[in-house]
Amino acid sequence: MVAISPEALTPRRTKPFYQHLYVQVLFGLVLGTLVGWLFPQIATNDWIKALGDGFIKLIKMVIAPIIFCTVVSGIAHVTDAKKVGRVGVKALVYFEVVSTFALLIGLIIGNLVKPGAGFSGQGNAEAVAGFAKQAEAQKSVDFVLNIIPDSVVGGFAKGEILQVLLFSVLFGFSLLALGDRTEKLRSMIDELTQAVFGVISIVMKAAPIGAFGAMAYTIGKFGPQALGNLAGLIATFYAASAIFVLVVLGTIAALSGFSILKFLRYIKDELLVVLGTSSSESALPQLMQKLERLGCSKHVVGLVVPTGYSFNLDGTNIYMTLTTLFVAQALAFPLDLEQQLTIIVVAMLTSKGASGVTGAGFITLAATLAVINPALVPGMAIVLGIDKFMSENRALTNIIGNGVATVVVAGWEKELDRTALKRELDAGADLPHQPLAAE
User: Fold this and answer.
1) Which domain holds residue 301?
2) Is residue 170 domain-resident?
3) Which of 80, 83, 129, 416 would be a feasible disulfide site paired with 411, CB 3.0-4.6 Å?
């Protein structure tokens, strides 16, 4: 189990409200929205955009080292090698089952609400040509081969999560097989983990600035009218995601012994960072650290969270089925039951094939539409202008889904300290940043 340092058990001192990260990020989001709305010429300046892009790059800079250290350390401290394989299998089964629920919810809500019915807007089909071309190039076999890096250094340099994860698992098993001879190396990796998390703590101080820059640029470039034109689809997507989180994930959480609302409060800092940057990766290191503090063992966190970023894209799945229906409805192209069920099968595959690709949600949408009926692909132009606003919700739902999945799998494996889980969720997210002791 994960041991919490004695300092972490001391009473928490109440900080002024303005010192809380979530308050600072929320202020950055509000200020960014106002600047983008009132001063669009300033907001679309390259330097404003660089604030958001720069923050995301700072976070991505340490994602590969975090995954490597966490996975290697977690596996190297496990006494039973079979346990690692069990965690991976259970996680993948969980991902597929919950992803199916997400796809079904998007399909059901889309049929009930019919957000595209009677739509009279237009889009520029030429603008989506690039996404459609990328979608055609995405094949399942390429996805599998891409998990294997051309070189170890290449996987780290490119920030390919699954490539880093593969090497980390192999390296961890190697240390496990060598036993006591690698004790010094394991200790060094444990200490390196704490140092990298220290870097994260420093970088996160820039989160409010990054959130401001990303939001200001988005609103300044697309304008509030982009929201108004397709407000029905945006509202339906957010509502479908809320239903999924509160009902599906809420039920799973309740069955696993914790409250989804308390969990959301616990990770509110990470959710606001994701909201501002539209990237779930921007909160990956902090999420992993908080899950360890919740009592999830290090090797479960190290395996489930990175894998989930490619195989457990709940928000993307809801987006796929709902938006496919919207496009079909907007183009007055009715889909029968067989075609709609085909969407689920196709989306389950395409959502994996384009994971980690820039604009992945839009690319997977193009791939799905092309399979259902090529005549639907030009309809993507209708939603191109609001995709940025929808990507925020995709990222939010994805990170919540991966957090819940980790706690559930840890519970299945009896690698969850339920005392720590209850204590941390009851206390909230205002955690002292003492390092976690090694397992």
Assistant:
1) 16-427
2) yes
3) 416
